Amino acid sequence: MSLDKIVIVDYGMGNTNSIKKQIEKTTKSVIISSKIDDILTATKLILPGVGHFQTAMSNLKSNHLIDPLNKAVLELKTPILGICLGMQLMTNHSEEGNVDGLSWVDGNIKYFDFKNNSHYKRPHMGWNQMKHHKRSSLLNNIGEEEEYYFVHSYYMISNDSNDILCSTEYEIEFTSAFEKNNIFGVQFHPEKSHSAGEQMIKNFILL
Question: Which of 14, 127, 139, 203 lies 20 to 30 Å from 23 when distance is taken between CA atoms?
Fold first, then answer.
C-alpha cells in the first residue's frame, strides 16, 4: 500500500473529510486535493459530491479540473469512484439544472416523480438495499442483504445495461451502482453505510 496515492478530488462540493477518515482505516496514503498534478499522478481517484449538479459542473470548470480528470480517467485509466453527486456527474446529462455531465458513462439523471406521493418522499433518504446485477471486485465480501445510506432527489437511468452493477427500488428501479472499465459510481454514501460501506471502500482501494 506504500505506493498508493489516493486522491479525493476537492472541487468544493463534497464531504471530503468523512471519506478521507474512512479510507484511512485501510491506508494512510490518501490526500484531498484540487491540484492537477495530484490528479494525474494518483493511483486511485475519488469524486465526491453533495449539492446541485449544475453548481458542481460549474465548479469543476472554474477549477480547471475537467481536462485533467478526462486525461486521468479516459487516457491513463486511473480507477475512479464517484459517490452520490460525484457518480451523477459521470453521466451524460442531468435534469438538475438541465446541464451536461462528464459523459464517461452512458446514462441520464432524472428527478424523482412519484405516483404514490403519500408513501414515497423526496429526497430518498435513509437505508435501502441493492440488487446485484453482475460480479465485481467492488462487491467482494458484500451480500445483497446489506443496506446503504441514501440521500438524493435525482436518480440515474443507465442506457447500457452492461454498466449496471446494482439497482435499488424506490417506487421505480434506478441504477444505484455502476462499473465501466476503470469507472465506478455509487449513488449512496459508503462513508456513512457502516460495515458494508467500509468494505466497499476497502475493495476499491485494493483493486
Answer: 127
The Cα 33–Cα 36 span in angstroms is: 9
Task: Give the CATH superfamily of 6-205.
Answer: Class I glutamine amidotransferase (GATase) domain (3.40.50.880)
Catalytic residue positions, numbered? 84, 189, 191
- Using the structure block, give the residue that is written with the C-alpha cell 438538475: 96
Amino acid at site 80: I
Answering whether pTM is above 0.70, one says yes
How many Å apart are CA 14 and CA 177, to the nearest integer?
18
The structural domains of the chain, with segments of one domain joined by +, span 6-205
Using one digit for the tens of pLDDT, what is the confidence trace for 110-132? 999 998 888 899 999 999 999 99
CB 33 within 8 A of CB 7: yes
Distance CA 201, CA 188 (A): 12
Instruction: Look at strands 93-94 and 99-100 and give their pairing.
Output: antiparallel
Q: Tell me the average pLDDT across 64-85.
A: 98
Give 138's DSSP letter: G
Cis? peptide before 123, omega within 30° of 0: yes
Measure the CA–CA gap between 122 and 26, rounded to whole angstroms: 34
